[in-house]
């Protein structure tokens, strides 16, 4: 199976001094996801947790919703012309009761994220296909102080990032701020899929008492993945996109951006953030 990191020779220049040394890089390889034997999508990812990634991807697309929807996931032997197994092709087998996805899902092309459609059509699709409407879940309340503590906890858990500096991370916390799970990948969307896929396989969906923290920006596809997994709070250390904010407002997702130190912006779902009265009036 592929390794998470690889070594490459580099020329290092520091204050005019030149030296040659090996450097540790994060591995990046394609993963083809097949659904019941039929090619579906290809994504670039860091090898590892591939079954979870595939399962999480299908949760975000509305194909899988619970542990019983999934029959098994296997690496495809004979994925190359000579019959060898590259461990870069997985086949997800669903239970008999799972409906085949709409033809529009069948992209069979390279994709960097679960991008779906664009604009208003995307908002309508997510709102109508979400299995666990966030607005209907029991209230989760978080304080700014709790949110501010999460990035340091995520950073402390990024083991591969310490060696490579080239990975995104996503982490699940419970409403008390305890770290539940963390995954790393070259793609921020893949890191989230690995979290959600592991939860699906463990029978933990919906994640209705969780906070999702991502190490980069909050794009539409990350907000989509949170909504589809029933996660009520999404926080990012960088900016959200306009469509992510629109989706959060449409679905009741609490969306926090620019989470750095004790500063943050709440873009939607502010009712879940416990604000001091004086600060709220300001």
TrEMBL record:
PANTHER family: FORMATE DEHYDROGENASE (PTHR30592), SULFUR CARRIER PROTEIN FDHD (PTHR30592:SF1). It comes from the Bacteria. It is found in: Cytoplasm. GO terms for cellular component: cytoplasm. GO terms for biological process: Mo-molybdopterin cofactor biosynthetic process. GO terms for molecular function: sulfur carrier activity; sulfurtransferase activity. The keyword Transferase does not apply. The lineage of its organism: Bacteria, Bacillati, Actinomycetota, Actinomycetes, Kitasatosporales. Its main location: cytoplasm. NCBIfam families: fdhD_narQ, PRK00724.1-2. Belongs to the FdhD family. This is Sulfur carrier protein FdhD. The active site is at 115 (cysteine persulfide intermediate). Keywords: Cytoplasm, Molybdenum cofactor biosynthesis. HAMAP family: FdhD. Required for formate dehydrogenase (FDH) activity. Acts as a sulfur carrier protein that transfers sulfur from IscS to the molybdenum cofactor prior to its insertion into FDH.
